[in-house]
Amino acid sequence: MFSKACEYGIKATIFIAQKSLHKTRVSLKEIAAEINSPEAFTAKILQSLARNGLVDSHKGPTGGFEMNRAKMDTIKLYDIVNAIDGDNIFVGCGLGLKHCDANKPCPVHDKFVGIRENLTQMLKNTTMYELASGLDIGLTQLKR
């Protein structure tokens, strides 16, 4: 459903948010290793996320990526998807056809409308804090 770049972007942002909850900046190398993505590809994704104000990037020997706690409450999963993949998943054809709308629908147009609406609502209602803290709790419980 999402591009590979978008999947990596989501994973990277959640990882950065998790580490930021513990007041830790993370390097490109750490992020790429954690999400199992090539460094050069990860760098391009992180550049896009930083350019869109979704993560903070710091240069230098103590640099890296982080996200302040207040930002975690305002950044939604929707923002990451939109920053990397654009709005095509929210407005494009479910089959990927160029010309599909209510006037000239594809065979799954009507079925896909509801799915798209549910997906959009889920993405718009899911915050980075919810994801980062939820995974943190889940990881803590797994280690017991």
Task: Give structural notes.
The chain is mainly alpha-helical and 144 residues long. It has a domain at 4-84 and 127-143: Orthogonal Bundle (Arc Repressor Mutant, subunit A), CATH 1.10.10.10. The chain has 8 helices and 2 strands. The chain has helices at residues 4-21, 28-35, 39-51, 69-74, 77-85, 88-91, 109-125, 128-143; strands at 56-58, 64-66. It has a two-stranded antiparallel sheet. β1 (56-58) and β2 form a beta hairpin. α1 crosses α5 and α2 (28-35) crosses α3. The longest helix is centred in the N-terminal third of the chain and has 18 residues, at 4-21. The two termini are 34 Å apart. Residues 139-144 have low confidence and may be disordered.
Tags for this entry?
144 residues; mainly alpha; Arc Repressor Mutant, subunit A; two-stranded antiparallel sheet; 8 helices; 4% strand; elongated; disordered C terminus; WH-like_DNA-bd_sf
Short description:
With 144 residues, this protein is mostly helical.
Q: What is the CATH topology descriptor of the domain at 4-84 and 127-143?
A: Arc Repressor Mutant, subunit A
User: For the terminal residues, how far apart are their CA atoms?
Assistant: 34 Å
Beta percentage is: under 5%
CATH homologous superfamily classification of the domain at 4-84 and 127-143 = Winged helix-like DNA-binding domain superfamily/Winged helix DNA-binding domain
Helix/strand order, N-terminal first: HHHEEHHHHH
Structural class: mainly alpha
By DSSP, the count of extended strands is: 2
The CATH class assignment of the domain at 4-84 and 127-143 is Mainly Alpha
GO molecular function: DNA-binding transcription factor activity
Protein name: Rrf2 family transcriptional regulator
Organism: Arenibacter certesii
InterPro entries: Tscrpt_reg_Rrf2, WH-like_DNA-bd_sf, WH_DNA-bd_sf
